[in-house]
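Archive transcription. Copying these from loose printouts into the bound notebook so they stop getting lost. Printout 1 of 2:
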Amino acid sequence: MTAEIPPTLKVHPADNVGVALSPLEAGVSVEGIRLLEPVQQGHKFALHDIAEGSLVVKYGQPIGRARKAIAAGAHVHTHNVATALVGELAYRPADVAMAASAAQIAGDQPTWRGYLREDGSAATRNEIWILPSVGCVALTAEQIAREASLRHDDLIAAGRIDGIHAFGHPHGCSQLGDDLEGTRAVLAGLACNPNAAGVLLLGLGCESNQLDALAKEVPEAARSKLRILSSQSAGDEIAAAGALIDELVAEASKAHREELPLSALCVGLKCGGSDGFSGLTANPLLGRFCDTLTGAGGRAILTEIPEIFGAEEPLLERAVSRDVFDRAAALVNGFKRYYLDQGLPVSENPSPGNIAGGITTLEEKSLGAVQKAGRAPLCDVLDYGEQAVAAGLSLLESPGNDAVSSTALAASGATLVLFTTGRGTPLGFAVPCLKVASNEALAQAKPHWIDFDASLTLREGSESADDAFLARILAFASGERTAAERGGQRAIAIWKRGVTL
């Protein structure tokens, strides 16, 4: 039975703010107090008087300090709360044993229908990808993909292959050092993704990101599915590329979906355009699924390192070893140093959309964001472009930008991205992207963007929502098209860090 949603929520017993689950007018009494001013949906109000300089607490954790005295019943937001974040910290493991690895769930696992590759990996799609080594041939790659899709329309319509896609980008030349290495690493990682049954690496010929160096970055086990073409060396590069694509299609069309256990899934965890409901509905929903997946022996990848600032210590406490703890702590501090070296504060977040949706500080945003990873032990730390091989939860080096971080997740092996949002976005990525709305209004307004409404958690309870969410994940993993796929939204973005020559 659907329950009536209460007007407000106190997330944790230690909190000194409540959250409006629907718009509240001044003068109404909630949580035993009278509101002094209107409070928008997803925004916060003081549950009792908060002295100037005192900590403001949500999720049982500090989300900032009061800029001035805040009276009980007052709206709590950017006008009266400031971040308490500082720069790098000396993280120390607690004086207790490290977190235990996730216990394997006994008994039968839920199943899905995917493609089992020769190397033992599992794919949610059976596609041909064209990866340009350089931006100069990005539009050429798109032309090749369009023509090949028309040529093989019968196989696509019959489900023998799931599509032929080009992923253009503006990089690969005029780059140096770590910047060039990062571009090469993420493209090589994408070439490894199980969803790509065949890959054409398309170059120009004179770029910094030379094709032979790029191909060497692809692990030996994945090189058999590669074809390589330098446009300057080919007579008619469109015809030459088309012939190579035809070879890849012929091989890929032999694959068939089969029943696979939940443990065969590798998912990326992502949030974008968050609001005050993201940490209450959508992100905890992902977290509970993450616990189920990692408990079954599957892989989950968490990234967006700058959106961990202020919530990193509880996450670090879940490390399974001192080595994992140290690498995760170094990754967080390294990102803080990345900001500081540019003369920027580590708290340069949340975005205008986040603020409009009720998020006040980066601490609040981060404490909501890390809930996507549930309570799973932290098993590994990955460099940008590195493959996730360990069962359990991995932490991946990448900034928070939606396109950049989602691309990084795919390059590390995620075959499905679970993307929560309170504001909405149509953008999709290299692998299927399941959009999860944090609030009912977004889900109803944008059904062509949204795949699941996490406000079901408030209306019907977490158990019902969890069951429905798992069913949708398994359906999308088994071939049902996400909203972004139906809309033709497929893109990548590469993390550009260095100078441009």
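Printout 2 of 2:
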Amino acid sequence: MKIGILTSGGDCPGLNAVIRGAVLRGVISHEAEFVGFRWGWRGVVQGDIVPLPRQEVRGLSRQGGTILHSSRTNPFEGEGGGPENIQRMLDENGIDAIIAIGGEGTLTAARRLVDEGGINVVGVPKTIDNDLAATDYSFGFDTAVEIATEAIDRLRTTADSHGRCMVVEVMGRHVGWIALHSGMAGGAHAILIPEQPMSIDEICHYVESVRDRGRAPVIVVAEGFKLTDMEAEHSHKGLDAFNRPRLGGIAELLAPMIEARTGIESRDTVLGHIQRGGAPSAYDRVLATRLGMAAVDAVKDQAWGEMVTLRGTDIARVSIREATGNLNTVPQSRYDEARVLFG
């Protein structure tokens, strides 16, 4: 059995731990051989393949990024794209199956390859945003929250020193999990998420309430947040390879609006890709390793079109269609818990 592994989409702490877990499990338990596709789906389309023997994955769990590199290539586009071309490439290289490690875009493409071309693919959910349905948590999320929380802690000290309002923007695309968790952990005075549009007047009410208590306001906002009078999320960076808007910059809009309405000097900080970088947390290393091991078992069982997932503390399998059909959004009950702490 020869298995190809790819990492696609945005990089994420824990990717290397998945690769290591998959290779070790496959070599030790199933006598499998592994290769890696470089640069995500681009490597599949272009046949850019490297061997992945056991010695290549030693010590990978603690290493950030991905040794296979990544891209946002659409496998249905380009000269070598589409199910027929991809199957031909797999046959020519003796590759029996693909383990696709990625988020919504990557797994949606994987599902199409299974459904439309019968390609043997198993998915592993990867996203710092925690926005994939059918898994309780995805690896990378815990690390991103830790990074964002540390940033909030640091910004709070400079906010207190100057009596400023700090607006901290975190990632998350169309869901607010990173903002919710880091905001609660960092003691934010308001948390703004895509699932809960809010007017600028409501935001300023929280800011003024904090000021009136003699504190410096700290607002955490998810990149996909919308004010109630906005028709769409703020995006000025164009589209990605899957025609999705690249979000970011909402904090840069909110800070001057808050200052103009409240008279409180306000500053914005966009954390951006720093949330993706560095070594993964211990939790993410363990979860990623378990998912990698389970993915190889799924290949052995020929569970094509399925994705390994976390349910409670157990690793299970679900169809990729179930995982990509809906977003894992923040439920009202979780936001109501946090809202009690606002202002």
